[in-house]
Fold this sequence. Notes:
The complex is a heterodimer.
Chain A: E1 6-12, H1 18-31, H2 37-58, E2 66-74, E3 79-86, H3 110-117, E4 120-126, E5 129-137
Antiparallel strand pairs in A: 1-2, 2-3, 3-5, 4-5
Helix pairs in contact in A: 1-2, 2-3
Chain B: H1 2-12, E1 20-26, E2 29-38, H2 43-53, E3 60-71, H3 73-88, E4 92-96, H4 104-108, E5 116-118, H5 121-126
Parallel strand pairs in B: 2-3, 3-4, 4-5
Antiparallel strand pairs in B: 1-2
Amino acid sequence: xxxxxTIHLDLPASFKHLGVVRACLAELLAHAxxxxxxxxxxxxxxxHEACTNIVEHAYAGHxxxxxxxxxxxxxxxxxxxxxxxxxxxxxxxxxxxxPDPHALQEGGYGQFLMHTLLDDVAxxxxxxxNTWRLVKLLDSEEGEPT
Amino acid sequence: MEDTLxxxxxxxxxxxPAESMDIQTIDGVxxxxxxxxxxxxxxxxxxxxxxxxxxxxxxxxxxxxxGVHFLDSTALGTLVKAMKRCRQQGGDxxxxxxxxxxxxxxxxxxxDRALALYDSEVEAMQAAW
Lengths: 146, 129
């Protein structure tokens, strides 16, 4: 992993600051010569959903919560690694199945989107807090979600 | 007067406006044009407006997302909730102007099959209710 292609952020855990993560993702993927608008957008959406989960569930809207973010480009195979850390309550990941569209559920889509749009989604709670570890492979991506 | 009261109540209940909102009522149809992002940060205020707009009978609401460049699952849930309420009130929520890449969240969740999506605002406003 090249330290020149790694970004660390420390954000307040609030919805209004999540645009910072999306902007950094776009910048980093531009450096990775990833020009597909759809690819950049889907990565932004998946990471945004994970951050939203932290705000809503780990901190339950508590204003003093923080999100530690690491974005890194790495090789073998070429991929984007995203780590999100929080010190809030541990979360029980929900099933990632697609909700029945005709059931017209008002929630439950975030986990499905994360697992659909990314190549690996891991949630690791420990004594220090919780970590989302997200991976998006870059070389096989042609602009459409897999 | 009714519309003015509704909009005033809506604005008073919110703390931060969406990046762009334009609200009109045309021939009994409540029309909301949004710009910028529609996500967990904006969803509460937009949901409040949609709730107020769907109290009429029949509740006919059009939301134009042509200017929206980012939309998340919280926004999606807000639209589903409003659509259900509009249909309970004898109307519908119509969504128009979806641009790529925003459209993908509707396709992946297959809600493009359940929600009333229109290409243009003209189509959404003029189609038979």
